[in-house]
Amino acid sequence: MKSSTYTYPDKSGHFGCYGGRYVGETLMSALMDLETAWNEAKNDPAFMGEFRSMLKNYAGRPTPLDFAERLSNHIGGARIYLKREDCAHTGAHKINNVVGQGLLARRMGKRSVIAETGAGQHGVATATIAARFGMSCKVFMGAEDVRRQAPNVLRMRLLGAEVVPVTSGTSTLKDAMNEALRYWVAEVENTFYIIGTVSGPHPYPAMVRDLQRVIGDEARQQMLDQVGRLPDLLVACVGGGSNAMGLFYPFLDDPCAMLGAEAAGEGLNTPHHAASITGGSPGALHGAMTYLLQNDEGQIQEAWSISAGLDYPGVGPEHALLHDLGRVRYDGVTDLEAVEAFKLLCKFEGIIPALESSHALAAAIREAAKRPKDQAILVCVSGRGDKDLDHITAYMKAHNL
Amino acid sequence: MNRIDQTFTSLASANRKALVAYLTAGDPDFDTSLQILQTACASGVDVLELGVPFSDPTCDGPIIQVASDRALKAGMSLSKTIRLAAELRRTVQTPIVLFSYYNPLFKYGLERVAKEISEAGVDGLLVVDLPPEEAGPLTTALTGKEIHLIRLAAPTTKPDRIRMLADGAGGFLYLITRLGVTGTGGLDYADVAKHAAAVKAVCPHPVCLGFGISTGADARALAPVADGLIVGSALVRVIAQAPADSDLPALVAAKIRELREGMDA
Ligand SMILES: Cc1ncc(COP(=O)(O)O)c(C=O)c1O
Question: Cα torsion at B59, B62, B67, B69 (round to 10°)?
């Protein structure tokens, strides 16, 4: 049972000194309305019942907990268990959050939804739910990501969404979010903004965490049922941090270590990475105080990762707090390490993971090698890798892998 | 007395409205920007809003986004913006409001910002993405300085909150005229007038209107309903659209005179 020691965010939406609401005044009343609507909905058994029922019958939950036996034997250390979010409808954990926010949008009477997307998984999930609910849908996506994630662009269009390529700034996820915020300010009265991760202004970080905690709730029970014990270590990749918060949150009061894998790109000692916590400093972006990649004068720096879903210069504010509290350790995983982990999972388990998830797998493999065989590591396979095949093939060719 | 308060007091006694001009600091480069600002102040601007360029200006439309990019590419930063304000202050008595996103200020250090802008002769600070709920640390840093923290109200702001914003405002209240980001056009004069009247009724400070005001006709229509008008994108666009080798200060001054004539008509 959850003890009362960890009660973040506070009433004003802060996780310690992080989080809050750093937005233009025009959005303040929409955020207050959203907070009220969410507080009512999450305490309404009918709403939560519908949410659970859609997760089961539409999204295909619960997702499996799967012992990666051959991979574990190959590494020769701790046993690795996979939480298989790649098995969820649309191929990633993103659907959990979107089902919840979609239901909330409908409850609030909104007829159109918008989203930002990096890898395209959140965009696909949003387009999916918009089709299911008969809502109009616009997805903002960096022009660079439109190129890197072509299959997902096609999926979104098939699902009836309008994909808006964003060419401002660095043409990646941060710029997509800038553009989504600008659009929302203009259309705030009729539009619901479905943010795809545990970032943004309050109440998004807490709401998305509460919608994603199903990952950890299921995994915790599955570990007890299937393995008879809790894991020694939890591992998840951290872009904005939603699959990681979803996995970690239900375990916060348990004696389990936690590791967040950030994208170290070409290395933390190069300017080409996306590790906001391990390589950044506190600041305010996209509505929240958190860790950011920025220069000495507060200009946001370009993030870099092979994985479009991790290619973001910020991180959800709750991770900033968990880092400062020392409750979760954050570590970098390079492009190359992620690609090697990707290949191992394909080879030993017959699972093609997303490039984002491959960062978590690489960190888990690194840890497993250091730990004895009687330890258990639970890693979140946040999504499947079909979307990444062209990109990864090109990478392997360029690096003679 | 703060220069902003002096300006509004003397405008009110002359029965005139304030023209508040926004320009991005360092656009297109430091030296040209200084000349443009000096000329603007001599051409009918009552309050100058000096924009600190930022990499991620989420409250701004394309015109100011691109200006911010131009300035950053030319090497602009918060520290150089403060230097620009200090140089301008040597020749100009116009009140200067620094217009910024929160992150550059936060990263620089709030105490250091307060000290340096006050020494530079800045009179106000307007932080677009900092609602009063998050403004505690900045307010503390500004304590004892002759600097107003300017607040914004929006068309979506509910009446209770308008009162809260108005009560805590310093200098003047920036009333956003319409939904959306900064840019030109999209104004419904009658709507704006109605909203402005409601806000003026509960605001103990001057109320200035901003977002979308771009022509002499806009200025003529809206000057009567507020204490001042704020023009940004329409001025910045002059810089963006000028052919190479144009006399930028003269072009900006001409646009300012168009607005001024509209307001004084
Ligand atoms: C499969 C997958 N995993 C992880 C992420 C990163 O997001 P988050 O850190 O919010 O889980 C993404 C984002 O696009 C994704 O598609």
Answer: 80
* ipTM summary value: 0.97
As a whole number, the mean pLDDT across chain A is 96
Q: Which domain-ending residue is among A182, A208, A234?
A: A208
DSSP string, B34-65: HHHHHHHHTTT-SEEEEEPP-S--TT--HHHH
What SS3 state is found at B175?
strand
Total number of domains in chain A: 2
Do A318 and A345 have their domain in common? yes
Binding site membership of A356 for ligand 1 (Cβ less than 6 Å): yes
Strands A18-22 and A14-15, sheet pairing? antiparallel
Q: What ligand 1 atom has the least distance to the C-alpha of A308?
A: 14
Residues A31 and A160 reside in one and the same domain: yes
In a domain, A333, yes or no: yes
The percent of residues above 70 in pLDDT, for chain B, comes to 100
Q: Is the domain of A235 the same as that of A328?
A: yes
Question: Which residue, judged by its Cα, is nearest atom 14 of ligand 1?
Answer: A309
**CA closest to B178 among chain A residues:** A186
Same domain, A186 and A98: yes
pLDDT band at A5 (very low <50, low <70, confident <90, very high): confident
Note whether residue A3 is domain-resident. no
> Is residue A119 assigned to a domain?
yes
Task: Give contacts of B107 with chain A, Cβ < 8 Å.
Answer: 281, 283, 294, 296-298
CATH of B3-264, one of 3.40.50.11290, 3.40.50.150, 3.20.20.70, 3.30.450.20: 3.20.20.70
Cα A127 to Cα A133: distance, rounded to the nearest angstrom: 10
Domain of A235, CATH number, reads 3.40.50.1100
Tokens of B218: 């806009």
| Same structural domain, A299 and A232 | yes
Task: Indicate if A269 and A346 belong to the same structural domain.
Answer: yes
Give the mean model confidence (pLDDT) for residues A166-170. Answer: 90
Q: Average pLDDT, whole number, for chain B?
A: 97
Q: Between vectors from CA B73 to CA B121 and to CA B87, what angle results, nearest 5°?
A: 20
Mean pLDDT of A349-361: 98
Q: How far apart, in whole angstroms, are the C-alpha atoms of residue A323 and residue A379?
A: 19
Q: Encode pLDDT of B137-170 as tens digits.
A: 999 999 999 999 999 999 999 999 999 999 888 9
The rounded percent of chain A whose pLDDT value lies above 90 is 94
Is the C-beta atom of A126 inside 6 A of ligand 1? no
Catalytic residue among B60, B123, B218, B227: B60
The answer to whether residues A194 and A96 touch, using CB atoms and an 8 Å cutoff, is no
Question: Is residue A72 in some structural domain?
Answer: yes
Domain holding A308, by residue range, is 60-91+213-398
What SS3 state is found at A370?
helix
User: Measured between alpha carbons, how far is B163 from A72 in angstroms, rounded to an integer?
Assistant: 63
Domain boundary among A208, A235, A258: A208
Residues A105 and A49 in one domain: yes
Q: Do A297 and B54 touch (CB under 8 A)?
A: no
Q: Is A361 in the pocket of ligand 1 (CB under 6 A)?
A: no
**Is the pLDDT confidence value at B265 over 90?**
no
Pairing label, strands B96-100, A287-292: unpaired
pLDDT in tens, A79-95: 999 999 999 999 999 99
Contacts for B72 with CB less than 8 Å, ≥ 6 apart: A299, B53, B55
- Domain boundaries, given as residue ranges, for chain B: 3-264
Q: Based on the domain organization, do A188 and A325 belong to the same domain? A: no
Q: Is the pLDDT of residue A236 over 50?
A: yes
Residue A74 — very low, low, confident or very high, per pLDDT cuts 50/70/90? very high
